[in-house]
Amino acid sequence: MNVFRFIQQNHGQVLELTLEHLRLVGFSTLFAMLIGIPLGIVIAHRPGFNKPVLASANIIQTIPSLALFGFLLPVPWLGERADRLAILALTLYALLPIIRNTYTGIRGVDPAVVEAGRGMGLTESQLLFKVELPLAVSVILSGVRVAVVISVGLATIAAAIGAGGLGELIFRGLAMVDDSVILAGAIPAAILALVADFGVGRLERRLLPR
Amino acid sequence: MQPAAASPVIEFRDVSYRVAGTEVLSGFNLQVQSGETLVLLGRSGSGKTTSLKLVNRLLSPTSGEIRVKGVSNGKRDVIRLRRSIGYVIQDVGLFPHFTVERNISLVPRVEGWPEDRVRARVQELLQTVGLAPETASRYPHQLSGGQRQRVGVARALAADPEILLMDEPFGAIDPLTRDELQREFLLLQQRLHKTVVFVTHDLREALRLGSRIALMEAGRLVTVLPPREFLRSNDPLAAAYVRAFGDGRESAANRGMS
Amino acid sequence: MRVPQSRLCVLVFAAVVSLLPSCSPSHHDRIVVGSKNFTESFLLGEIVAQQIEAHTNLKVERHFYLAGTYICQQAILAGRIDVYPEYTGTALTAILKQNASGDKQDIYRRVKSEYERRFGLTLGPAFGFNDTFAMEIRGEDARRLNITTLSQATAFAPRWRAGFGYEFMERPDGYRGLAATYGLRFADQPRIMDLGLLARALKEHQIDLAAGNTTDGLIPALDLFVLEDDRHYFPPYEAVPVMRQQTIQQHPEVAQVVAELAGKISDQEMQRLNYAVDGQHRDAKEVVHEFLKSKRLLQ
Question: In Å, what is the CA distance from B174 to each residue of B11, B131, B147, B179?
Fold first, then answer.
């Protein structure tokens, strides 16, 4: 098959672009977790905020990704480097699944358990770290898994604005009308998404509370 | 009639609790003496669970004051307050991701007890509540309902608190096991002499376990009487309760009263 | 205290996710040549690539068909490509976002110093041609009317019909500025046509003046004539190689061999190269190889 020959002959390039792709996904997922998990915890404990926060994250998700990339291009510091821009956009798209699952996971903890813990004299942070988070971690991870899979897909589109990654092969292949180049980008991207889904899924199952 | 105690362990002074425009508790005055089992009896909505939660400050009063061991709740650190009070609830609320041992020992560990003292205490408590030593390494989902509540009681007793708050602890348990647990509770009380506030809607349980019964209705305290006097009471609500439970006398008989 | 297995798993996962960002790709052993996604650009890219391959020990990788100026800029800043062909006018207006003014040496100098200062990029010497807007008329008309410049053509414009692409009509630095600079007036409103059809329409007398590019392959093929922009209305778009300074530091021979291409491609030569690929459908690699041999840059 031509695509395998292309990958073999250009393995340096494909590897480089794959690492770049992982970099985009890695940074954005990390930032989304650093912002989204605490935010999810806050709205789980303060129900007043949950509608506006979840609604905002939802609105961001509905913006077509290419349009969001386009909006951000003219912004001074961001627009100068496409990878910064892409990481910001990918982070925004990863927020909803992570915030929502953190919220659901924490709200899903048996209220009797929380009441008993509080009544026993656990401080709010002890309650959070020793009880709520360990019991919610599987659900939270499921949100992270969704975020990662979405990011792998969106990162391919980010190549349209110059952020690199495997999408660059796809777009170049489209311009050249060359299937092997397109597939040399598309196949590794699909594999990445599947591996991430499977890997995080395994971790989720192992962390399910009994 | 009990002799006048030096000072009550728990005291409600003119307490009201209002939520969303409804007065769940109003003008509540009550004293709980050391070593007694005070039962809060009433139907749903009578305010009994609310009163219980005011003691360990899971709720804060709208007006009035609650004093525990002479110190007003508002003036005391809430965490220290809660750790000095054992809390047992109907759904038990065991931590599903912890073993029985970690469940029971959570507060002592958080308080910094040394490992060996913790382990010894867990074994001691398992024995006290009638569970086998091997139970320590099991998980809550592996236990029966009765066993779980025993662990709940053990957990509440772990740091040896003076006060025990119990909110319908045996309500979700089958009658046979409930009978067992009630009997064991009485034995435990005889040994430990904790100050217990016990919430129930079951008159039989109240008569069996309580040293005094505080009858509540619609957020107000109706009457506070020892079991024998409760049975003979002319108060219309108390009498209604006795009638409703019919075999109340039988429960009294189980305690060795006629 | 024995750490629960689940907590360990979460830590490992978190560590992996945090380390992923530090995977920064780099290619010290290869030179990557980029180009935009039109014929002229990847012909230039191929010329640079073959030049480097022939005269150095370095392996060359081609990343052609990148979808535009911004994409190429991002790619070279990120180090995904090491060199690509750009136009000075485009660099000045689209990337540096400045106004085009001054002659071509001015513009070259400004672009070069700004690129070195801001981006860690530099310009090699220009390839030798200017790909800017071309006001084309039929060769026979140019000869018959004995005109070579736009100023001379202005006299005849009222008898002519003009045809332009949509962008040229709309851009402020397109038709509007041109008409103002030269006092051009046509018989009717200029016709807006698809770029690919303009040259044919001109040949077939449907229009008498068209706006194209100076290096368009159809110019020699269809015997079209480019009127000289004697008032210098259109900014210069000199083709230049843009290179990463880091790459040149590591491989100074790259700068040397690319510099040998300086001035080697005239407007007409670029037209012919474009036509060979677009018009005659010849293989780009062959066309470039032939060209380099003819210039004695290859054995």
Answer: 34, 18, 12, 9
User: Which pTM was predicted?
Assistant: 0.81
User: Which phi and psi (to 5°) does residue B112 adopt?
Assistant: 90, 20
**What is the mean pLDDT, run by run of 10 residues, along chain B of 258 residues?**
70 94 93 96 93 96 95 94 96 95 94 94 94 95 95 95 96 93 94 95 94 95 95 92 73 56
Residue C21 reports pLDDT greater than 60 = no
Which secondary structure element, helix H or strand E, spans residue B217, and what is its range? strand B212-217
User: Which residues on A lie below 8 Å from B91 (Cβ)?
Assistant: 110, 112
Q: Is A163 on the interface with C (CB under 8 A)?
A: yes
Averaged pLDDT score across all residues of chain C:
88
Q: Which residues from B are below 8 Å from A122, CB to CB?
A: 79, 106-107, 110
Q: What is the ipTM of this complex?
A: 0.88
Closest residue to A210, CB basis, from B92, B141, B165:
B141
Nearest residue of A to residue C21, measured between CA atoms: A23
Spatial separation of the C-alpha atoms in residues C197 and A34, rounded to whole Å: 55
Residues of B in contact with A123 (CB under 8 A): 79
Task: Flag whether residue A45 sits within 8 Å of chain C, measured between CB atoms.
Answer: no
Tell if the CB–CB gap between C63 and A13 is shorter than 8 Å. yes
- Nearest by CB: B93 against A113, A123, A126: A113
